[in-house]
Structure of HTH domain-containing protein:
Amino acid sequence: MKKSKNTKQDILKLLKENKIISGEKIAKILGISRTAVWKH
């Protein structure tokens, strides 16, 4: 997935596309830390 300027929207898109996805996997896909996922 191409990372956009809006991390929150990227996370929401991943959650919408994948009913079950871990914060760790989201972080890996977006190239951000697990903590950054949690903060958004």
The chain has three helices and no strands.
